[in-house]
Amino acid sequence: MLRRVENAFQRFFKGEGKYPKPKRRSKYRSWSYPPKDVRFEGNKVRLPGIGWCKFFSSRAFPDGFSTRTVTVRKKADGWYISVQLRDESVPATPTPDAAQTAIGVDLGIKKLASVSTGELIPNPQYGKKAQRRRQLLSRRASRKSKGSARRRKAYAALARLEQKVERQRTDYHWKVANQLVNLGECIIFEDLNIKGMMARCKPKVDPETGKYLKNGQAQKRGLNRVIADAAWGELKQKVKVVAAKSGVLVHEINPKYTSQECSCCGYVSPTNRDKEKFLCESCGWVADADVDAATVIRQRGLTELGINIPLPVVHGKVTLKEPVKDRGNHLGCQMSLRTLGWNGLNSAYSSGGESE
Question: How far, in Å, CA of 325 to CA of 274, rounded?
Fold first, then answer.
């Protein structure tokens, strides 16, 4: 416990966390052993102060890895041992000049990730699928008498459901992380302020009566739930871990106006995008909105890194949207929809709506 308090204060002094707060005894569900204090022999482990214990080894320790901190943790369905391993053969952090291929990744809700190469990674939304079961178990547990064994068992069943959702999401994130790392030698994300995106709406007060007015928090609550279910921050952390092992560079850029900017001419307008469709009001570029945003992210990242990697041509099928009034900021081409004409735009594309 003293080591944990010391680590908490060190994180506070470095600005990585808040001031440590006292915790109840019931909050402690794990403890850690320093390196070289725990011994492993096959499916047995010797824990100081406890002795030899049998455990199920999910996988053998890789050759060349040394064991570091060992943490014993209690979860909803039993006790687990988490072992930190160190590999001295991990490749050094790559330099931008060494990258030959690069991808931009736009994180979302319906699509967990949209890649600048045109690949779309779906979001399974495991938390949403388990919402009905979660409500039933929570209702059953709340009706049990406080302090009873049935109430404890009911909440244990709810904890097992949450653990299952967490494992499904974690497994899917690791698979997506490996998929993204295999697509390029440089991965560029948006530096999203997820905590700010999930903040509560500011209260609205009627100046005459002093009563609180509706501020949209009910709708915001549902959005916050799906953002938490997507877990973008955890996905990016896993991508960074896999990228560090593979020698892939990960960079983050400012997300301002990435979904409104045209990747072809640089024209910025909020009306360029209509849900899943993107139609530039200036040059007539048609693409999937999320793929276009990923392309813009890629271009900005390469500009910040100071490298030039050509973008492969992406072919996608989209449905054209109706033209709207031009009210954006122009950064490139001078041609607009009013000059091109809707009939001319339709003739410029095939009947299937393919874009080049």
Answer: 13
Give the Å distances, CA to CA, from 76 to 108, 134, 152, 200, 355: 30, 15, 12, 30, 51
Q: How far apart, in whole angstroms, are the C-alpha atoms of residue 196 and residue 204?
A: 19
SS3 state of residue 345: helix
Helix, strand, coil abundance in the chain, percent, nearest 5: 35, 20, 40
Q: Are 151 and 138 in contact (CB under 8 A)?
A: no
pLDDT tens, the chain, 356 aa long: 888 899 999 999 998 889 999 888 878 889 999 888 999 998 899 999 999 999 998 888 888 888 899 999 999 989 999 999 888 776 666 677 777 888 999 999 989 999 998 899 999 999 999 999 999 999 999 999 999 999 999 999 999 999 999 999 999 999 999 999 999 889 999 999 998 888 988 889 988 888 898 888 888 888 899 999 999 999 999 999 999 888 889 999 999 988 888 888 888 888 888 888 888 888 888 888 899 999 999 999 988 888 877 665 454 444 444 544 444 554 443 333 333 333 333 333 333 444 33
Residue 162 buriedness (CB in 10 A; 0-12 / 13-18 / 19+): middle
Tokens of 103: 């991808």
Confirm if 62 and 85 have CB atoms less than 8 A apart. yes
Specify the pairing of strand 286-288 against strand 277-279: antiparallel
Cα–Cα distance, 126 to 201 (Å, whole number) = 26
Continuous segment of H or E residues that includes residue 43:
none
Would you tell me the crossing angle of helices 232-246 and 149-181 to the nearest 10 degrees? 50
Segments in 108-148 forming alpha helices (H): 126-129, 131-143
Give the pTM: 0.79
**Long-range contacts, stretch 220-224, CB < 8 angstroms, 24+ apart:** 224/198
